[in-house]
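thought: user wants a sequence for this fold. calling inverse folding tool.
action: design(structure=
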C-alpha cells in the first residue's frame, strides 16, 4: 500500500506546528494550504501546495486541534 503523506500525522485538514529548519522559528501551517508558506523570520520556504495537500518542508512538531 502506498503512503503518500507519511510526514503528516493526521489525514484530515489540520493546522500543523512547523519549525523552520534554517532558523528554528515556529510557524503554523494549514495542511491543505493553497499558497506557499514562508518563514516569517528568515524567509525560508516552509510549505508549498501540492494537489490537495501541502508539502511541508520544515519540521512538523505536531498538529493543532481546531
Ligand atoms: Zn526561518
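)
observation: tool returned 66 residues.
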Amino acid at each position: 500500500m502506498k503512503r503518500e503523506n507519511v510526514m503528516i500525522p493526521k489525514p484530515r485538514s489540520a493546522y500543523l506546528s512547523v519549525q523552520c529548519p534554517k532558523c528554528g522559528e515556529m510557524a503554523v501551517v494549514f495542511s491543505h494550504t493553497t499558497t506557499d508558506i514562508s518563514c516569517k523570520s528568515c524567509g525560508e520556504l516552509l510549505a508549498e501546495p501540492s494537489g490537495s495537500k501541502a508539502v511541508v518542508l520544515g519540521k512538523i512538531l505536531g498538529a493543532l486541534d481546531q
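thought: summarizing for user.
answer: Here is the designed sequence. Residues 20, 22-23, 25, 39, 41-42, 44 surround zinc ion (CB under 6 Å).
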